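<instruction>
Derive structure tokens from the sequence
<data>
Labelled lines for chain and fold
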Amino acid sequence: MHGFLNIDKPSGMTSHDVVVRIRRLSGQRRVGHAGTLDPAATGVLVVALGGATRLIEYVQHQTLKRYLAAVCLGATTTTDDANGEVVVQQALPPLDRAMIEEALAPLRGTIWQTPPMYAALHHQGRRLYALARAGVTVEPPPRQVYIERLELVEYQPPLLTLDVVCGSGTYIRALARDLGVALGCGAHLAALRRTAVGAFRVEDAISLHVLEEEVHADAHEALRRRLLPPEIAVADWHALRLDEEQARRIRHGLAIPAPADAPSQTRAHAPDGTLLALLRYDGSHWRPIKVFDWTDA
């Protein structure tokens, strides 16, 4: 069984918890997720099964993510979200939409962002959150992230709701914290829902509870019906349908000639339409990056 599941993760579960449940439901060991969601967050969690796990990197690192974020103004916390202890509480200044828009403007585009202290990043071989829990304070180095969209949806003091579209590695908690600094009142992330990961949308997601009920009623066929094809991970890549000879060469890891105006990367499909390989253009040929074998599907 190979492909992707678009799971609407419930609050209170880690992303790994979801993987464990899917592994149990499917009876497969090769199960992984494309991009961690904090336990309190809900929404799209992309889960890969079988050979599709080899495509996780393209979902996790090469797609934009979309979030609906509720930010609570007037209070900063140790974790930059509602799970932490309140560090500073302040009265809200008189804010209108124009003032909030002015504070949001510098947070758009390619920006430098300092990750939260309570993060899964490593520092000298240890997770930042493990160091924080041990009482060790480390200032994570800032890093560049990309915020394509940052729009104010609603403001009902002390909560404001943001629609965020961003690249891989962006911390929405840090975005909430930095917005609070810009507004001069402090802030933390009160709630978060991931509404899209690339082509995976929350409108099309299935809850874990519903999936478990379906599998209980119809065993593995329910999972097969819900599985999305592996090529959805690279749906925006140029698609190439191979003939038999080209497919034979690619299966053996050999290059095939490419036109001078070929795209830099393409997904190659066998004559029957199944995804066969990912190819990279070297100036004259397409060379396999990854070749897939779905025979145990």
User: Anything to note?
Assistant: Residues 237-291 form a domain with the Archaeosine Trna-guanine Transglycosylase; Chain: A, domain 4 fold (CATH 2.30.130.10). The first strand starts at residue 3 and ends at 9. Confidence is low (pLDDT under 50) at residues 126-132. The helical segments are 15-26, 56-60, 97-104, 128-133, 172-183, 208-226, 244-251.
